[in-house]
């Protein structure tokens, strides 16, 4: 990622459709700054080396940024399909020992709360005692729970963290350390987390 920022800083990195169906594009500089902001907030939330964060959402800008930020600070990212049921989410989040879950949307929910990731997670949240924060991405309805915070509240936590703190954590990365847990479909049993090291990744 840093090489791409250096070489292609003002070139397109991500293009995402907004609510009106219009394409919005972030440059590599934009993407990098978003990753740094999230990294600072993760450090402020005491996410340590090799600790896990989960992302339960459809594809969107924050999904990629959170994934990259977790890896940037030598933590581990866990992706969860936006169509996963409450029981499937409970298993993956619990099995991975995730401390934070980022929650986005399901564009095919048709207004049905049974299909919305925020409602599905709320049903089993009290069973996940290792979860410290549930961070709702922009536009996601905030439900009442002491662990649930908005995207703005999460980002504001990083205001006390210096760039040097992020840099120090980034420099602690060992290429043989786990960067990501990718869970299998669980066809013949509970999903299993497949470890990918930093040496397997390139942004």
UniProtKB/TrEMBL annotation:
InterPro entries, alphabetized: AMP-binding_CS, AMP-dep_synth/lig_dom
GO molecular function: ATP binding; long-chain fatty acid-CoA ligase activity
GO cellular component, as recorded: endoplasmic reticulum; membrane
Domain AMP-dependent synthetase/ligase, chain residue ranges per copy: 4-201
Keywords: ATP-binding, Nucleotide-binding
Residues that span the membrane, as ranges: none
PROSITE patterns: AMP_BINDING
Annotated Gene3D superfamilies: 3.40.50.980
Protein name: AMP-dependent synthetase/ligase domain-containing protein
